Amino acid sequence: MTSFVGTVASLAARAGGSAVRQVRSVVDPSAARPAGASQPASGWLVVTVLREQSDIDTARLPAPLADFGGRIEVRVRPAADGKGTELAVRLRDRRSSGGVLSRLGGRDPQAELRSALRRAKQLIEVGEVLAVDPAPHGKRTATPGGMLLEAWTKVAPKAGVR
Amino acid sequence: MKAVTWRGVNEIGVEDVPEPTIINDHDIILEVGLTATCGSDLHLMGGYIPAMRAGDVLGHEFMGTVAEVGRGVTKHQVGDRVVVVSFTSCGQCWYCRQGLWSLCDNGNPNPGITEALWGQAIGGCYGYSHALGGWAGSHARYIRVPYADQGAFPIPDGVSDERALFASDAAPTGWTGAHQAEVRPGDVVAVWGAGGVGQMAARAAMLMGAERVVVIDRYDNRLAQVRTHIGAETLDYEKVDVPAELRELTGGRGPDVCIEAVGMEAHSPGPLYLYDQVKQQMRLQTDRPTAVREAIYACRKGGTVFTLGVFAGVVDKFPLGAVMNKALTLRGAQQHGHRYIPEILDRMSRDEVKTEHLATHVMSLNDGPKGYRMFKNKEDGCVRAVFRPGA
Q1: Residue A32, domain member (yes or no)
Q2: Does the pLDDT value for residue B272 go beyond 80?
Q3: Does residue A137 lie in a domain region?
Q4: Domains along chain B with CATH numbers
Q5: Taking the model in full, what pTM does it have?
Q6: Which of B56, B144, B283, B287 to substitute to test the interface with A, most A CBs within 10 Å?
Q7: Where is the Alcohol dehydrogenase-like N-terminal domain (chain B) (predicted)?
Q8: Containing structural domain, residue A126
Q9: What is the ipTM of this complex?
């Protein structure tokens, strides 16, 4: 079952990634470049949090990032024009940043870190991590489209273009 | 509990679903009093936004009574009568603090989907697909409301449920369009679409001082509502040439501000409509931008065009040349209702904003499929089907 879900997730990522890539290539020809071209070479993942830099103690990061321990590097700097503080993290061991399809599918080496960074931002700004499940719903009819969407939804918190 | 659900393309159901529970500290559980269909639901219904799963609860425009309160909630108590904005926004990120609430960084638990589509994720929306968070919608007896201190607003005593309901989405969406398009006193404003959002955009523009406001549609009953309840002028695009009429109306200049409140399934009488239909059905474009094209064409030089109707992806034959050469400002947004709802409720309490006429058909949740059919096909003059879960 697990491998089946994994296969569906992989298909979802491929299908979603392909569709998105197709759409983006229409809108932005630069998106048609080889997979991985839009990933910064440095490997930093960055969010901006609406806090002063002095409010973010890199030695006492929120749990989702603290759990990575010495496996990540952390950088903070003020955001331009009072937009808060840029909080950047990257894996020390980054042999591969993954291709654009694996990033969209939440299967790249930085997927867990991307999710942790988003959760850390929420903890700093709001004080809690927003959860949607369990959301009430009716009967789920098993359709290929529904399975693909479910698979993509499961990885969506870890997926992204950055 | 009973709920109106999306079952598949053009298939609406009524099902028993589990009741929601408080998950985050800033949640409330709301007993839904009234919940409205919205034109943007039709895009979900028709499969134009392919991020719905069978069984998803629909509905994002609603009001009701607070039934349960999370321990982090400070502004609401059990029994409060509130209206809830359709977007889930944290109130703490930079975008929320700028008043751009629908762009919230934290309100969408599935950010990977819209980040892939649009480059950045926006906030979440109730009952509006897994791309916007996967939140259960309001067409049910109860709904979970996250970030309740930010998104739920007490309804003044003198404002009826039927009026307050549309302070959830239609009115603040209209306000977003008029305000973000920077309507100024003396402006001539044209609004494409005489549905709930278009009517509210017109009303907002009038209250912001516009000298003339013209609403464009083809349905007589909707245009009559605009004249009677909103006080704006109207044009029937099946009877007149809209850009020509607007030119005459404005001394040859064109409207200062053009607000498009139609969205991705726009209709037009011309051959371009057939072209757009074919391309959309073949998935060569995701959206039909007919009204946007006309708004760009009609707008005065240096004016502003605002896309308030919902679009999801890419469009064809977009008149970028007109945008550039006429020096237009082109803007768009989902609603930033959190910043406008207090003003709207205040104006509702003073009868400056009236919305009851939009609820042309009020029914029980059991009539969900019928309500959506009537709304989609404009049967019996349906402007909005509204469900009363307690009925």
Answers
A1: yes
A2: no
A3: yes
A4: 2-169+335-387 (3.90.180.10), 174-332 (3.40.50.720)
A5: 0.90
A6: B56
A7: 25-157
A8: 2-155
A9: 0.91
